[in-house]
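Researcher: Here's the sequence for the chain we discussed earlier.
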Amino acid sequence: MDPWYGVSEQQLHAAFDEARAAAPCVLFIDELDALAYSRRKSQGSAGRALVDQLLQELDAIGSDNAGMLVLAATNAPWDVDDALKRPGRFDRVVFVPPPDDVARKLILQLVLSERPVGPIDHGRVAKQALLFSGADLHGAVERAVDAVIDETLEAGRDVLIGQDHLERAIAAARPTTVDWLRTARNYVEFANDGGRYDDVRNYLASKETKSVMK
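Model: Thanks. This is the structure I predict for it:
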């Protein structure tokens, strides 16, 4: 993104050209809504040219996209310009939900793998961390470490991270995914044209999700 007129479009074209030169390749665009915010919702015209440029690049107007797989991620699919979601562009949408029990257990094992830990039932902790993202779990471990440091200073000896430290940290935290899921629920209820958000709706209807969001 560049404040000068036309430079952002040139840089976007250059990025696609670099990917074409490296084909076969995967071109991944993170935070797609920032690059291709809905022109229907936009208050100004500054972003329209950039959306138009991205559409041209995806349609390979004057270029060849053979051997390129273009992927994108966004936390706000409802803010992405509708033209980007048409066939041949980003027409296959995959919902990535918060990690389940098995994934949370593995994340905890990874985060704790190089920490001084005592006996820990990772599976039990994971079940208590409903809707926790990977970042939420990492934050809970950091809070548990802070508590262990305090105990170590008070006791004058090394204290290992234990089950109780993690469970207290989890109980004191709130999963950051809840706010997003509540926003998504509004779009599922009122803007689910063509069943685009059916997988989100099914996830929201699950017993686990309801227990946290009630």
